[in-house]
Amino acid sequence: MNKPISVVSRRTPMALTEALVARTLRAVEDAGPTPGMVHMTDADYARFRDGILASAPAGPLRLFAYGSLLWKPAGEVRGGERAVARGWHRSFCFTVQRFRGTLEQPGLMMALDRGGQCQGMVFEIAEPVAANLEALLRREMTILPAVNVPRWLRVGTEGGMGQALGFVVDPANPRYAGKLDKPAVAATLARAVGHWGSGAEYLFETIRHLDACGIRDRNLWQLQELVAEEIGRTHAAV
């Protein structure tokens, strides 16, 4: 029998507030593709898309969302059910020099890394599945070799175990940052910003939307406290 997914209890507000997040934001021009990187082509996206569809289990194609896909999905999804992916945990574990970072101040992004478990949401990718799946791939993957790779995960919901598509980190990729300690992650998230926004904003929105789904991640909650402290030290109030 699957263990029930815990529901978030009432707690004190986040230390990382919208006002603190606003201190980290500034206009950053998109510098475009990072020099020296091999960017995915239409043929690459088609290859990944077709491989996923060929290996998909019977029934609707399901997506496991654990970070920004909760609040900024690519393509169209429907439904939504709390789920647990066992054997994986969400972690700020790979570097970015674009989107939420720059060449001068690289940022950190989340992926699923091995070990532990991760609570998230399972959605169904809506019709037309191929088009919505490709939109998802174009959002999550830009460079080859990919650091954030699609994988079929075993996830548990109230209805039992099943498979859902998730994005996990490739530890062999040069952009894999490994298991950083929380102060190091907090220092990066408090400083890094790109044309998509700041690392602090990314963390804030992820926690806020997890909370709306009834999910609490203890590690992210501890991290937001450190990020709030770091912003207070490094960004003057406006």
Specify the CATH architecture: Roll
- Reading the helices and strands in chain order gives HEHEEEHEEEHEEHH
What would CATH call the homologous superfamily? Gamma-glutamyl cyclotransferase-like
Low-confidence stretches: 1-10
* Number of separate structural domains: 1
Q: Total number of β-strand segments?
A: 9
Query: With helices defined by DSSP (H or I, 4 residues minimum), what is the helix count?
Result: 6
| Overall pLDDT metric | 93
Distance between the termini: 53 Å
Structural class computed from helices and strand pairing? alpha+beta
For the sheet with most strands, the description reads:
5 strands, antiparallel
Task: Bin the helical content.
Answer: 25-40%
Q: Kindly provide the name of the CATH class.
A: Alpha Beta
- Order of strands across the main sheet: 2-4-3-6-7
Shape: globular
* Strand portion: 25-35%
Stated plainly, the CATH topology is called: Hypothetical upf0131 protein ytfp
Radius of gyration: 18 Å
Write the layout of secondary structure elements.
Blueprint: H1 18-24, E1 38-39, H2 42-55, E2 62-65, E3 77-96, E4 107-125, H3 129-140, E5 143-144, E6 148-157, E7 160-169, H4 182-191, E8 193-194, E9 197-198, H5 199-212, H6 218-234
Antiparallel strand pairs: 1-5, 2-4, 3-4, 3-6, 6-7, 8-9
